[in-house]
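Office hours follow-up: a student asked to see two folded examples consecutively, so here they are.
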Amino acid sequence: MNTKRFTRRDFLKGASAGAASLAMAACIPADTAAPASDMPAAEGVTLRFMSRPHSQLAQEVFPDIINDNFTANTDPTISVNVETAASGWADKLVTSMIAGDSVDIFQAWPDIFYVWVAKDLILDIQPYVDRDLTQADLDDFIEAQWTRLRIRGIRVGMPKYIDVRCMAYNKDIFDEYGVAYPSNFGADWDWQEFTAMAEALTQDKDGDGAIDLWGSRIIATSSAEFFGWLRAFGGDYVNPDDDTDCWLDEPTSQEAMNWVYENMWVKEPNPFIRPEDASGTYDDFISGRVAIPWFNVRPAQQAEQVGQEINWDYAHVPSGPVRRNALGDADAWSIWKGSSHPDEAWQFINFLAGPVFQELGTLRSEGSLPIRKSLMGKAVEVYREEFPAVAGQHLEIIPEMMEMGYLENVIWFKDNAAAFELIKPAMERIFNLGDADPSLMIEVCAEVEAYQASLE
């Protein structure tokens, strides 16, 4: 595989110049922290920052990026102690917050925030946002992320990176069976064309009477992976206007589930691989067992794990009868409500979400997608420069997703955990085992609604 691996020394050679050029390009000073509050920062303030970097390089260079571009340029009285998250970090973090001895800043995502807000552990940063961010700042964030970081009435943090879903396709398999590639990298296809392609690519390659190449893989038992398909048909897990109303019994949701169920369990041969036949997403793709897998856009990871072993590319998710929809997840940096230094912590997470750290930290050292629209074009350039193994792929899908505006996030029930204690086993019966059809969800929804309605 042809991948380019950077060391800490390589990275830091260009970091200072990169930060300067970023600041000039953005027409802002090198730091992007919000103005301090009326109360001056106390001398010698040290923030504890729990980091969960996505690469070894990021783990090594984060302290230098922070020191050179935040501490040095924002307020020399504020220092940041970077602490790498340990195994079991989530449970340990809750314990330390409840005990009153926690890090000031940490990273999590909406499912976790939903629970922790209920425990009153997360600082609402909305007052800081209202005071310090301009409309131009807000417009530069991705709407799906920004919207979903308001949870149970508070804004839980500043976005960290964006995790998005797409499709991928094996060009060699398409060529072998004479199937045309998704038009315009999937920007033009719909669920019917996608299904027809999956059927045409489902094959018994060795003629032994058993299918060994499937058209696609749809993950239907994870709400984060499946809600986009529901919405493409006009459905959802829960009514967006009533968090006690289960929508899996609605005709539109039933139509979406039946489409997957029939292609997985009813049709012979089945064009969507069954969970019992599936391995890992990358393994099935590289080995030629699945032609069009449900995928994510993580070029740094894919340069390493897929690279040039097969002839492949990215594609947009197909549109459904109603619209096109896919996950744009909302990981974020948050502040512990018990922090002794909330103003300084806000300055720091605002820096982390700013253009300087988003390029040097998120994009260049982690290889993750930045959360600012203004950096999406830069992301394509950086991935092609630093990860040659994916330089030939349609990385333009990254800004295209943002422009097309179909990325969204999950909506929760009033008591989401309780709802999914009922929903998940039923979805596993339907899609993992195939011993029930989607009409089972009509009965399950009634149980979910009865419990949700009983909550105060």
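And the second, which I mentioned at the end of office hours:
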Amino acid sequence: MKNAKQKFGLIPANRGFFSDELAAKMRSETIAAMQKAGMEVVVPDEELTKIGCVETLAEAEKTARLFSEQGVIGIVVAAVNFGEEQAVAWTIKESGLNVPVFIFGCQEEEALTPNTPRRDSFCGLLSIGEVLRQIGAKYTVAQNPICFPHDPLFIEDLRKFAAICRVVTGVSNARYGQIGARPDSFWTCRFDEKSLQRLGVTTVTLDLSEAIGAIERMKDDVDVKKKIDDIKGYCATDGIPDGALSKIAKFELFVERFVEEKDLDALAIQCWTSLQENLGICSCTTMSRLGNKGIPCACESDIMGTLSMHALHLASQAPAALADWNNQHNDDPDLVNVWHCGVFPTYFAQTKPKMGVQEIIAGSVGRENACGVVEFEVKTGPITLFRATQDSEGFFKSVIIEGNIEENTAKTFGAYGWCRVNNLTSIYRDILLRHFPHHVGFTSGSVADVMWEAFGNYLGFDVYAPNQKVPGMW
């Protein structure tokens, strides 16, 4: 997915006794709108089908082959008039592509009179939706289902649909690397690998001893020296011993090569305490830097945390982080400290990032063995928090919450931000009762509606969205 060209199919659904001229006009406007939304459009041309629309079963089969050959990751259905619903259903069915579908109808040119050329897409879109239900195809509906393609709200919908397609396709074809077992005391990071595979996610495992052994055999060559310079440009390293920086650089090189060799989308790493006791560093700098490059890395070998971060990254096209629901503010019950020891990508930094010591475990492993966390305060602004998990029977569920990072006089160590969540106490109680763990992913901006549609509609998750007023809309 990370290297795939994102192509989107367009079915301009036509019905013959309506105006071909009006149908062709809406086909052209829909293509223009999709291109404006950043989509690469795959659509039959006038040589493949009549006026480049889809009406007959023969045209449907040609279009289905086109979509399959081009590998589209989503399909837009435009009822350019009433539309031929069977042709729409047949195109989607025969393509063999299990991808998200977006449906809308085109508005009339003017108020109707007995002589007005008409579309009747308001009626036809209902028929299209019904046949899609009959063939078991899930679909997304535009916020304003009957509109003109040039409407700004429609173009916004297309951008969101593209994000939905990225999440669905990316997650259902993902490859996650797991370096090391979860900490034994963290049952919260357990997961069912077999049921995750049925979702489409492949977990690629590596024993932590293989990483440690490879790093110990590495020489201080030009690649290591270049990596050290890169790290010094990424965060302040004052007071960090040269030996620790060398090991951190080697660890990053090893992990990067593992990602490339296994074609991985994201990672989960056993970050304590074996690395500290056997190698004398923390993995946080490497995880922060990879996350900054779009390869999310979860702490404590939390693979479902990896999935949560990866999905957020696909939705926002920005870095994602994994935090602890760490502390509720003493004086403000709607403020929560989203914190981790120092693994957030510096994309989120408001204060200058500085490499430091993992204060929590330093007492047991020694400060000299706990260097490598990246500390800063998270920049202010809206964030979307998301967590996917499994219940005891292996069924999938998720929680989606929108919040806002704001400045506060309360300070701590590590990387953190104070996040305002409306009705936090009530939501926290529900999170406990609905059995979600202490890790939660987050990304900048508002992608809650994208996550709801991707996981609640297409991926089959039970979704808890406490502040959502209308399903799929925020």
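Two things to take away from it. The mean pLDDT is 96. The first helix runs from residue 20 to 36.
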